[in-house]
Design a protein that fits this description.
mainly beta; ten-stranded mixed sheet
Length: about 220
Amino acid sequence: MVRRQDHRLVTSTGHGRRWARSRGRAIVTAVALCLGPTAVANAAPPPTQPVRVSASTESHVATETSQVLPAWTPAVTMVNSYGQLLHKASAADTWSLQSRATTHLLVAFGLFDWVQLDLGIPMVIYQEGTTANTTLSSTLRATGIGDVRTGLKGTILRTPARGFGLGLSLDVTFPTGTRSALLGEAGATYAPQVLLEYRFGGGIETALNLGYYVRPDVTVGS
């Protein structure tokens, strides 16, 4: 038996050149490709979350910066992601997610120039896979909504044209996704994070997120 702990120390980094800064409503589209095995034989559905993407145009695609949107400024973002296994599962009685295409609808709203509210709704528009305790001909539900995410982000140290920036964030997801279709966790999750960044000359910046991801225990195996 393998038991996954619900507490996990997570880090993520990102960097990029800021070539567009929105001060109003923005629509951004990106594509992410994720490859790797996810087929695991177990008695209960394994947790399979869609890709976590940033809601603010002040951040990178999957890494948050410490900066927030200006006061009373909205931003609407749509991010499309697609993932596919490099091999097909062949064992019976196996939960297997073979491929998935997801559209993430994200809304952010700046408050008081130092606080930002986020809302993320992952929508699986198509997926292929099989369910456990059945034959491989039993497939997962093709579409559905994942776990809805809300977030709160605040700036502690505002970044000038060059230099360091510091912020804090808290993400909470709710178990709105159907677990038997591998669309969500077994319960709510929480992810407090410290947001660090550094801006170089010429609009180049790098960001580091250090956080603690809390989610329900899941027993994998017999």
